[in-house]
Design brief:
single chain, alpha/beta, D-Maltodextrin-Binding Protein, domain 2, 5-stranded mixed sheet, 20% strand, TAT_signal, Tripartite tricarboxylate transporter substrate-binding protein
């Protein structure tokens, strides 16, 4: 045998042994997990809907795991900064991302994300949902979706709809509304819920596309009226408000979901364990009631089903963004 081939041949068994040793070490660590605090990263500021859900989940998981679950808020760039940080974290189960469904919308509008929304993560489970709703101010003349559609058709491009920013649930919901009903609206993005709501309540903007969780306070206070729900079912908090499907329109569910993601490469056995623990949390009646106070509903998907949901959502929102020309740098 020629010597020039021997170095390559000699390296192959070592590489195989190295991979086996790494896998064995990860398995051993997974069996002892957790032996220290777990970090749950949130891509939004404290006090927002995602942060509130994360803290409710963290409290329950602390009891299940016997270790602290520490919330770390890393806001910025529509949660892409936090998402990238978790994607690059060690796949050892000690860093998790509490993600909302902007996770599957961001790839449709940002041109150069440093991670892949599906391939860079190991989904642990989806835990809750809250529908997107088309609202109008209490003083506005619209009482049904038909009223708003008729006004929009009478003044194409003049009727404005507020959202909490470019590329969010409201923006995507507004685009699907226009495609489904054949109307043209004027998108008015704001920097968050508070300034958008202020102009809606003052009557300066007639429509507001916002999740139920983000608008429930103003609704309970009688300041805004719901016109239609974007989702598969009527919302428990809005039992008399129809869905788009009930009104004969096809529009994808642009409501928010919340779930946990781990970095890709996290041991499968550990993902399954965390998924089972998250399912246990979802069945806790007290937890369900706490979510209801936040206008959210417990909606559990395990690791495999959550992964499938993510891969289904990605092309759906890419198609909407492409049709609407939605792009952010």
């Amino acid at each position: 045998m020629s010597n020039k081939h021997s170095p390559g041949l000699g390296r192959r068994p070592l590489l195989g042994l190295s991979a086996v040793l790494v896998a064995a070490a990860r398995s051993a660590r997974a069996q002892n997990w957790p032996d220290r605090p777990v970090r749950m990263v949130v891509g939004f500021p404290p006090g927002g809907p995602t942060d509130l859900v994360a803290r409710l989940v963290a409290t329950e998981l602390e009891a299940a795991w016997g270790r602290p679950v520490v919330i770390e808020n890393r806001a910025g760039a529509n949660a892409t900064l936090a998402t990238d940080m978790v994607a690059k974290a060690a796949p050892d189960g000690y860093t998790l991302l509490c993600a909302a469904n902007n996770h599957v919308m961001n790839p449709a509008i940002y041109t150069n994300l440093p991670y892949h929304a599906a391939d860079s993560f190991a989904p642990v489970g989806m835990i809750a949902t809250s529908p997107n709703v088309l609202w109008t101010g209490a003083s506005q003349p619209f009482n049904t979706l038909a009223d708003a559609v008729a006004a929009a058709k009478a003044r194409p491009g003049e009727l404005g709809f507020a959202t909490t920013g470019n590329g969010g649930n409201g923006h995507f919901g507004g685009e699907t509304l226009q495609r489904a009903t054949g109307i043209t609206l004027m998108h008015i993005p704001y920097r968050g819920t508070a300034p958008a709501m202020q102009d809606v309540l003052a009557g300066r903007v007639p429509l507001f596309m916002q999740t139920l969780v983000g608008a429930i306070g103003a609704y309970r206070g009688g300041q805004i009226k719901p016109l239609v729900v974007f989702g598969p079912d009527r919302a428990p908090d809005l039992p008399n408000v129809p869905t788009m499907a009930e009104l004969g329109f096809e529009a994808p569910d642009s409501g928010v979901w919340y779930g946990l993601l781990a970095p890709a490469g996290t041991p499968a056995a550990l993902i399954q364990r965390m998924g089972r623990d998250l399912e246990m949390v979802s069945k806790n009646t007290a937890f369900q009631e706490k979510l209801r106070t936040q206008a959210s509903v417990t909606t559990f998907l395990g690791p495999a089903d959550f992964a499938a949901r993510i891969r289904t959502d990605l092309p759906r929102w890419a198609a909407v963004a492409q049709a609407a020309g939605m792009r952010l740098e």
